[in-house]
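Supplementary Note 3. Input sequence used for the single-chain structure prediction.
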Amino acid sequence: MSLNRASSWRRPPALLPWLLWTLWVLLLPSTVTPTTGPGNSTLLFDSTENSNSLRNCSCSAHIQDCDEALANLLCSCHTVLRSKLTPGGLREQGGLTVWLREPWVLTELLNGSVVPDLHLSFCGTSTLAIPTQYLALFGLRRLRVHSAAQGAPHLEQVLTIASRSRDMEGMG
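The predicted structure, written as discrete structure tokens, is reproduced below.
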């Protein structure tokens, strides 16, 4: 091998590392942070720190049921006092996830709300006391119920509501 030939070899252009870095950044979100949809989802939960408040979070990443620490870390959250809640005042266009430990979250927050896709997760350690009044939800299309309680007979249940004949065709 002659020195002339070895010296004719050129270093890769400085553009190559930049292109590799850009490609890595573009592919990273699709492999590391699964999302629940095209935008953010709403997560509400009664805080373990203050029983008279609710945490209202906007999350772009999927958060495992009942993981408050992860929700507070990855989502944009703020605290809402129970006295400031408007009963039946929720109007969600997309999905809503609610983690609950106490039945007041169902009766005071959700009753009379408009929610097309609701994911309820019971995060308590014992069984939930069943409220004595009915829960009315408007526009509900899908209900998912999860229980983290020990000995729960059904950990995950899903109910899909079809309102038109074409919806029924897609289900079968």
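The beta strands are 41-46, 53-59, 76-81, 95-100, 113-114, 117-122, 137-138, 142-147, 156-160. The chain has one domain: 39-171.
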